[in-house]
Design brief:
seven-stranded antiparallel β-sheet; five-stranded antiparallel β-sheet; cytoplasm; alpha+beta
């Protein structure tokens, strides 16, 4: 169990919910396969294909969203509807009108939907209830929303917010590149993207290239800002940090994975060992990342004149 990406969210620390309580609430929306006319179905599944919807190892929790989609491309619907329209035109002597074509496409879609292939996938989320972290293995915040939307619908309360830091990743990464090194236990690797502020299409990408040269500093001086930067934390975890405080290309290095007994053959034991190591590393990485970004962004104090607004409290929770 190793995440490849991480969309980072904050919960209260500690989060006031029990393991049993979370499992019971997730059970309200267990995954059910698509019905004959359903284009998509979403619901909670067991991470380990057993009865538990929350898998717990060492106080760390793992949940999984099951998604099933029927694969019926619009082009197929149009093609069949056009063929039917030609038959109708031959019978009635003129082409179907716009309204008739719309009804024909709807009828074709309804006819073909039960015969469409389905595709299933899982999305995982890691929860650290004591530390107040929720991380979703998704390549973008938009994809993470697939899971969060169902989570909001399922739980009685979800006091969740995106991670915000006092210093923006763009500003921090620019400073690190200009100085030639990252602070703390972080080191700069060899991949980066710098993008022009004036022209969004103007970008420079470095792949397996030393980033301490004059050319990088020249691009920074010319107004380009880093939107991605490859880093390694404590010689144990490598990743790419983005301007949105996303973590991509997450890779747990051999020094971490070698802690798993390679003689172990039990599938659940291997799964648990991987999840325990991954969550343990993330619990070290995320606070350290927040620290080098000057801490979490503090919401302004609410107005005392009785006219406080939601905006005065910073970003609203999800």
């Amino acid at each position: 169990m190793w995440f490849k990406n991480l969309q980072i969210y904050r919960l209260p620390a500690p989060w006031n919910i029990t393991l049993e309580g979370l499992d019971e609430q997730l059970a309200r929306k267990r995954f059910m396969p698509c019905g004959s006319q359903d284009p998509e179905s979403r619901g909670w599944v067991s991470p380990l294909n057993d009865e538990r919807l929350v898998h717990a190892v060492g106080g760390q929790w793992l949940i999984a969203l099951g998604v099933e989609q029927r694969l019926l491309p619009p082009s197929v619907v149009r093609q069949v509807a056009d063929e039917r329209a030609e038959e109708i035109a031959a019978q009635q002597g003129y082409k179907p009108g716009r309204k008739q074509m719309k009804e024909l496409r709807e009828a074709v879609q309804q006819e073909l939907m039960p015969r469409a292939f389905t595709r299933k996938r899982k999305m995982y989320a890691w929860i650290d209830p004591e530390g107040g972290w929720l991380g979703i293995d998704a390549p973008s915040q938009t994809r993470a929303e697939d899971l969060l939307e169902v989570l909001r619908q399922t739980l009685d309360s979800l006091p969740l917010a995106l991670l915000r830091t006092e210093r923006s990743p763009v500003s921090a990464m620019a400073g690190w590149l200009a100085g030639g090194e990252a602070p703390g236990n972080f080191t700069i690797d060899q991949d980066a993207e710098l993008r022009s502020v004036a022209d969004e299409k103007a970008a420079v990408r470095y792949v397996r290239h030393a980033l301490d040269g004059e050319d990088v500093r020249a691009h920074l001086a010319a107004g380009k800002l880093p939107t991605r930067l490859a880093l390694t934390f404590d010689d144990r975890v490598s990743f790419v940090l983005t301007e949105k405080t996303e973590i991509k290309r997450l890779d747990f290095l051999d020094v971490v994975k070698e802690q798993i007994d390679d003689k172990e053959t039990d599938a659940q034991a291997l799964f648990d060992a991987g999840f325990a190591l991954m969550s343990g590393e993330l619990r070290q990485l995320l606070p350290a990342l927040v620290e080098v970004l000057d801490g979490e962004l503090k919401a302004p104090e609410a107005s005392t004149d009785g006219a406080g607004s939601a905006a005065a409290a910073g970003d609203p929770p999800f």
